[in-house]
Amino acid sequence: MSRDNAYLRDILNAARSIQGYLHGLERGFFEASQEKQDAVIRRFEVMGEAARHLSPEARSALPEIPWRLITGMRNILIHDYDDVDAATLWDTAQADLPALVQRLDSYLAQQPPPDQPPD
Fold first, then answer.
1. How many domains does the chain have?
2. Does residue 114 belong to any structural domain of this protein?
3. Is position 42 annotated as part of the catalytic site?
4. What share of the chain has pLDDT > 90, as a percent?
5. Which end of the chain has fewer CB atoms surrounding its CB within 10 Å, N or C?
């Protein structure tokens, strides 16, 4: 499960990065800023790629997280890049990331530190 925990930490860190990129911004500024959109898109891609590598056991340990949606969003961002909507990015970040960050924070706080072998 330690490899899974590394992927979960990657997801958590990417989600926190998105929150940091958007902190204090207004929606209109985000929608007009290609640079901010690129940064957010990249972090969503990282989240989806890390989620794609999780074991079935890790996914089932956190059944309330919409893993298929996370990996599906990554696929859209990578393969249908010309169809990405800034408003959808903004809405997803605002509506879904706070609960995801909270849940992963809580779960990972109960796991052994990365440099400590499990009992």
1. 1
2. no
3. no
4. 87
5. C
